[in-house]
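dumping this here so i dont lose it
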């Protein structure tokens, strides 16, 4: 029972760190409230030169991409199971991802050179799409199983002494429109801004490239897990763009 309680406390702690990183991400990408955002910093001293800023920012995003993708692969999960209980695996993934995000926020080098600046109704529309993106991203996690996605369900099941069961394949609500509404939400939040700077553009391009590559690996894993059920789903539902705006992939 002590071990089960420890697993639950670990899952709660991991979720708390995730919540902090997610809330900071809202301010970081949107330039709201937080002391250091994608375009602004209160750091004292000379700003980083352009080449240093690009290299550091790309390294930070690459670190997140590598960790986020490698730890999500089934082969890595099987290896990790030799050292950690299965109930801790998702919480560990969430914790490390969140800590790397916080490192990115802390060490990010703003590049404030303007790319575009909208005003009036256009600025309001872009801001609305930005917040719609965050709403879609969060809502997408709730449409499948928010607590499973962030490791809490596994810890609660273990606390009861039950066996952790796999997730069944479901396509609720937005998942009937696009296969990856979570990623669509992130893309909207990253790109829709009334004030696009060079640093923000670098962030958006790099994360878009990562999402497009990572989804190929994720879909391969989903096909391996669900077989023809997922293949049929792929044929019927587009990956990111609703069919009204683009052909399915």
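and the seq i came up w/
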């Amino acid at each position: 029972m002590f071990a089960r309680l420890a697993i639950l406390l670990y899952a709660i702690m991991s979720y708390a760190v995730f919540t902090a990183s997610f809330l900071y991400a809202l301010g970081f990408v949107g330039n709201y409230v937080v002391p250091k955002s994608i375009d602004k910093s209160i750091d004292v001293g000379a700003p980083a030169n352009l080449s240093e800023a690009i290299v550091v920012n790309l390294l930070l995003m690459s670190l997140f991409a590598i960790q986020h993708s490698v730890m999500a692969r089934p082969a890595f999960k099987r290896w990790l199971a030799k050292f950690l209980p299965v109930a801790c695996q998702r919480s560990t993934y969430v914790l490390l991802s969140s800590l790397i995000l916080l490192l990115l926020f802390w060490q990010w080098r703003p590049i404030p050179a303007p790319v575009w600046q909208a005003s009036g109704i256009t600025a309001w529309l872009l801001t609305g799409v930005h917040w719609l993106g965050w709403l879609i991203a969060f809502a997408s996690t709730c449409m499948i199983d928010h607590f499973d996605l962030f490791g809490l369900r596994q810890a609660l099941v273990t606390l009861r002494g039950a066996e952790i069961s796999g997730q069944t394949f479901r396509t609720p609500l937005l998942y009937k429109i696009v296969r990856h509404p979570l990623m669509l939400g992130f893309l909207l939040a990253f790109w829709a801004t009334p004030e696009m700077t060079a640093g923000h553009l670098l962030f958006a391009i790099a994360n878009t490239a990562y999402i497009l590559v990572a989804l190929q690996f994720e879909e391969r894993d989903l096909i391996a897990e669900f077989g023809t059920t997922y293949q049929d789903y792929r044929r019927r539902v587009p990956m990111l763009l609703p069919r009204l705006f683009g052909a399915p992939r």
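DSSP finds ten helices and two strands in the chain.
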